[in-house]
């Protein structure tokens, strides 16, 4: 009589470990998010939507990848900065939700790339972030996105990304 | 006894054809949306809200209106680019919803204009988009909006617009 | 038998006057919002969310604080412009909601600072806005935020801010 419950329990457990397992496979270590850069909070939930503050390419030691793509950073380095911003955002999500498996969908992404005036490959830079989301969350990680080129960003960070997440 | 149903059926049909009829009156031909410029999707729905990715002034042949307003493009040409971005967005909405009459409200618009540093008429540029939404959807097309001037945009497109739509 | 109702009535009245009282304590006078700068509306509600259009640092007389932070304006003047944008936004909220006590949460803020290319203190500028929201609404005023540096803004306003508010 307990078999169906056992079965569903096993399925639920398997699903629950998916995202953490995927992070391990990708060699990604999350870290405790640092303090916000001003008088704001890292995330606010309303209904089933979690709005995240703008995040930069923060490393585990709290330092940031800085500089302008097209001058200080190559396209590849910019994409790496976007990916690191993804790691910082995953770290905030983990701290907010406790369990990354509670993410139902990465809904919307605004990716702002610190770059030179004639740099026009913001989408390739932002793929560094988007590829990570799809690698971690699969279809749930596929999002609507804008990628744009910025004149100036806080502390000269290379990328700033804000996202909206649908959560359980 | 069937008359009331017939009456409401006619009203419903009249309403359902409004948007398509309006597009014909305006001489606007929608087109199948092209592929996204990166690893993202054109739209994500959560609840009754549809979040659209950033769109550029894409023509039916897939080419874009490019250049900076205030240097490469006049104000009028910028407004035309914003209007063309509206056509591209309507094309995506049609592909997503099947029927544009399912649009309940254009809720929020972020309009990013590729321009020179001393150009300050972003609202007039963005009216090219907003006027089209109101022409097509009437009161349902009236939206909250931000219009700003950008340093650089993907592929040097003249305008990038992202919107949030409430749908049935 | 009426005592419980009386009691709750008094509590409700006390809560209802909180925000207006706080505005008086802070010496803030709201004003009737001016017309939008283009073919859009100042706010659109969908569900429990109110999306506000981009606002500038508009004064009661309709004039704006203009110029670039880092060149025309100091950091302190920029923060003052962000605070004034907050007053303009509160004025719009008051006009939309009738009663500012209907604000349940300032959910999300996008703060766009008109600045020079090497200015990197956008978060300190935006604290002028955020500090005001927390002073007025307390914990309900704590929001997720992005702060970024813009190349150009409408009418050369010093700051443009758009917000999402959860309302009753």
Short description:
The first copy, chain A, is α+β, with helices and mostly antiparallel strands.
Helix content of chain A: 25-40%
Radius of gyration of chain A: 17 Å
- Tally the beta strands of chain A: 5
CATH homology superfamily name of chain A: RutC-like
The total tally of domains of chain A equals: 1
Which secondary-structure class do the elements of chain A indicate? alpha+beta
The quaternary state of the protein chains shown equals: homotrimer
- For the termini of chain A, the CA-CA separation is 29 Å
Output mean pLDDT of chain A: 93
Low-pLDDT stretches of chain A are none
Q: Architecture of chain A, CATH level 2?
A: 2-Layer Sandwich
Model description:
3 copies of one chain form a homotrimer. By secondary structure, chain A is of the alpha+beta class. Chain A has a single domain (3-167), classed as 2-Layer Sandwich (60s Ribosomal Protein L30, Chain: A). Helix content of chain A is 36%, strand content 21%. The first copy, chain A, contains 4 helices and 5 strands, in the order ααββαβαββ. The first copy, chain A, has helices at 3-16, 18-25, 75-97, 122-137; strands at 43-46, 49-52, 103-114, 144-150, 159-167. Chain A has a 5-stranded mixed β-sheet, covered by helices on one side. The longest helix of chain A has 23 residues, at 75-97. The radius of gyration of chain A is 17 Å and the shape is globular. Chains in contact: A-B, A-C, B-C.
Keywords:
168 residues, 60s Ribosomal Protein L30, Chain: A, homotrimer, alpha+beta
């Amino acid at each position: 009589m307990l078999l169906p419950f056992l079965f569903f329990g096993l399925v639920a457990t398997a699903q629950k470990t998916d995202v953490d397992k995927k992070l391990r496979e990708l060699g990604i270590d999350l870290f405790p998010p640092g303090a916000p850069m001003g008088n704001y909070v890292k995330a606010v939930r309303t209904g089933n939507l979690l709005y995240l503050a703008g995040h930069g390419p923060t490393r585990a030691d709290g330092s940031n990848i800085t500089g302008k793509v097209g001058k200080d950073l190559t396209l590849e380095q910019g994409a790496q900065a976007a990916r690191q911003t993804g790691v910082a955002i995953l770290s905030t999500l983990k701290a907010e939700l406790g369990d990354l498996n509670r993410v139902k969908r990465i809904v919307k992404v605004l990716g702002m790339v610190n770059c030179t005036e004639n740099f026009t490959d913001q989408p390739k830079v932002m793929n560094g972030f988007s590829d990570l989301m799809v690698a971690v969350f699969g279809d749930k990680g596929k999002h609507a996105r804008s990628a744009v080129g910025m004149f100036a960003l806080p502390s000269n960070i290379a990328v700033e990304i804000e996202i909206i997440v649908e959560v359980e």
